[in-house]
Design a protein that fits this description.
Mean pLDDT: 86
CATH class of the domain at 37-92 and 159-248: Alpha Beta
Shape: globular
Low-confidence stretches: 324-334, 395-399
Largest sheet: 8 strands, mixed
Order of helices and strands: HEHEEHEEEEHEEEEHEEEHHHEEEEE
Structural class: alpha+beta
CATH superfamily of the domain at 37-92 and 159-248: D-Amino Acid Oxidase, subunit A, domain 2
Number of strands: 19
């Protein structure tokens, strides 16, 4: 609200609330099986210095008409400082089950989905999408890939950055009866639950960092496990996984016309870890722009909205410096140990016959050899020990 004022903040709040209502209506009308429940969402702090921020958030939420109220305690085994915020009538559901149910509903109503159809080129003037084997023409084109696959001249790499965050699913004897929780402290953690047939899983998220710039990923999971053990001494870890989200320089997604230079080419990206509501809002905004030429929330999300030059330059320069450093260091990171010393389940960049090679040894003693150089930006991959894959250190690329 400080950045864009009351009017645009109201647009953003209304868009996300309407997204929740839209999802609720679709689930109830078509009986979609996706573990949907209405839940309160809580924002809290354990830091005395953040109490003022909590109070400011509460006043801002109330001024925007959001269903917010102050609370003095939460169900988690955490003592909050003075006050927290509860947002009523939020939604929790299984996102994959929801999206699969939507896809089935779409095809049942006559829609057609083409999977394994890679878009390799976009001609925005003639509205042609080129695939590996075909050219597809359309009246309207929506670029809704995680990172826009068509970015020519639009510098999305300088307008948003990818962040990796981690989640662990833990079992424990107690259960969480309701609610989703997130703090606003320097170490952000989020909590929610899901019920399986035999037990309840508590999903604890956190340890976010800019993609390609974090410490050993196994240490990230360990930090979450240690925190879960501190709160629930009887806990046991059932699952670990990570997610990557793009966050724009002003924390608001880019939704709408890709550029004023082209008609009928739309984009939706940069949802900033709020993908289910912002993704739904993107569908509603773009639908209205196509059908009637306007939407009440189009201004706040506009990809062509004014960006502060300082913010744009700061993000561009910071990313450029980090990526240059990563590019240089990646070419010098070579392990000179013998391939036989590579343990099962481990990978590394080794020098074999005077050449750098990406090597992985699986748990059956089978070796995999790859060229470690990215064909796109020519940097060298690094091994992710937690997820057993090779990734690129440049901040906007991950494989």
């Amino acid at each position: 609200m400080n950045l864009y004022g009351q009017e645009l903040a109201k647009q953003y709040a209304n868009a996300n609330q309407q997204a929740i209502r839209f999802i609720t209506e679709i689930v109830e009308k078509y009986h979609l099986e996706c573990e949907f429940t209405k839940e309160p969402a809580y924002v809290y702090t354990q830091d005395e210095e953040s109490v003022a921020s909590i109070n400011k958030e509460l006043l801002a939420a109330l001024s925007l008409g959001l269903p917010a109220e102050a609370v003095e305690s939460i169900e988690l085994p955490i003592n909050i400082k003075k006050t927290g915020i509860r947002f009523e009538n939020q939604a929790q559901f299984h996102p994959r089950k929801y999206v699969l149910a939507l896809a089935k509903l779409f095809t049942d109503l006559g829609g057609v989905l083409y999977e394994k159809t890679k878009a390799v080129k976009l001609d925005p003037k003639n509205k042609i999408v080129q695939t590996d084997n075909h050219a597809i023409t359309a009246k309207h084109i929506v670029v809704a890939t995680h990172y826009p696959c068509f970015t020519e001249g639009h510098m999305f790499f300088a307008r948003m950055s990818p962040y990796t965050s981690y989640i662990t699913g833990v079992r424990r004897n107690s259960i969480l009866n309701s609610g989703m929780y997130i703090n606003i402290d320097s170490h952000i953690h989020s909590f929610r639950y899901t019920n399986t047939k035999n037990y309840q899983l508590l999903l604890l998220g956190g340890e976010s960092h800019k993609t390609g710039h974090g410490q050993d990923e196994t240490l990230r999971y360990k930090a979450l496990h240690d925190y879960a053990d501190e709160l629930y001494p009887d806990m046991s870890v059932a699952y670990n996984w990570s997610a990557q989200d793009y966050i724009t320089i002003d924390y608001i997604p880019y939704i709408g016309l890709l550029s004023e230079d082209y008609e009928d080419i739309y984009v939706g990206t940069g949802y900033g870890k709020w993908g289910m509501t912002n993704g739904t809002a993107a569908a509603l905004v773009i639908r209205d722009l196509i059908k009637q030429g306007s939407n009440p929330w189009q201004d706040v999300y506009s990809p062509s909205r004014h960006m502060t030059v300082d913010g744009f330059k700061k993000n561009l320069v910071a990313d450029s410096i980090m990526n240059a450093g990563n590019f240089i260091s990646s070419h010098y990171k070579v392990n000179h140990k013998d391939i036989a010393h590579l343990e099962q389940g481990q990978g590394d960049i080794l020098k074999l016959d005077h050449r750098k090679v990406a090597v992985y040894r699986d748990h059956h003693n089978k070796y995999y050899f790859l060229d470690p150089t990215c064909p796109h930006l020519k940097c060298v991959v690094t091994f992710n020990d937690a997820e057993k894959n090779m990734g690129l250190p440049l901040s906007w690329i991950k494989v």
